[in-house]
Description:
Strand order of the largest sheet: 1-2-3-4-5-6-7-10
CATH architecture of the largest domain: Alpha-Beta Barrel
Bound molecules: zinc ion
Oligomer: single chain
Strand content: 15-25%
Largest sheet: 8 strands, parallel, barrel
Number of domains: 2
CATH class of the largest domain: Alpha Beta
Number of helices: 9
Structural class: alpha/beta
Amino acid sequence: MILGFSNGDFYPINDSSFDRFSVEQTEIFKLDGRARAIELHVSNKKHLKHLLENVDKDQYSSFDYISLHAPTKNYQNNKKGHEVLTLIEKICQKWPIKNIVLHPDEVKDWELFLDYKDLPWSLENIHNVKDVDVVIQELKAIFQKYPFFKFTFDLQHLYIVEPDLQSVRKFYQEFSDRLVEYHISSYEPELIHGALFKNSKQNVIIKGVHNINVPIIIESAFVNVNEVEKEFRYINQKLKSYMNSTNPIRKKRNRVLADYQKRLTNLKSKQIAMAQKILQAKKSNFNFNN
Length: 290
Ligand SMILES: [Zn+2]
Ligand SMILES: [Zn+2]
């Protein structure tokens, strides 16, 4: 399982938005090598330039999976648009970026991307309208016209408009072959992206992860450093237990084990009852003899 954080997760406590690219914060997100993925969350052109000019190439070399969250800017087919995409292209030359996450509602002209279609783009589900089917249809239309885009499934985004996540299956039906990354976090109105370990009522967001082979980025916002470890452990443990209960082979194995356990307890209680009877018999025998 490839699980890790977005480097933007400390945004509620960072003094500067550039802190996310520091060596110290990267170390925290590594969790001694247990977190295998990192999302480089860039908000603007300055962040992109900072990554290119000031961040050491080796800073992310211990991660197996690096993705880039593209800035949320109006993407138009003009000088500015090409400037941003050229910087992203250079970042992909500096690091082995496996996925570039884009918000489709930020794109004004899709033709801009044709010159950069060899880069690993994906579109994230953004619920700017309440109707989930409309969101699915919009994504479908873009994928049909520009098939080089993959899909990043943000389960928290879906949760905000649909707390029971009943449309999860529709997304899998339509886009499972394009799925390259998951985003998870809880929903907290003040922070937007909250920590899941504080919100067990929102476990449905973790349950929405059906393909454990797809990298998972934790986009939870943290208000102190210790929460990184707590969130990682919580999500890791929940994911494992959900996988155990949904995987058909494991499900069968668990059922067999449960049956066996039951038989064993029955056997034990029968044996105890038998031992008690023998003891009783011995006692009365003893009484009789005396
Ligand atoms: Zn996003
Ligand atoms: Zn996201």
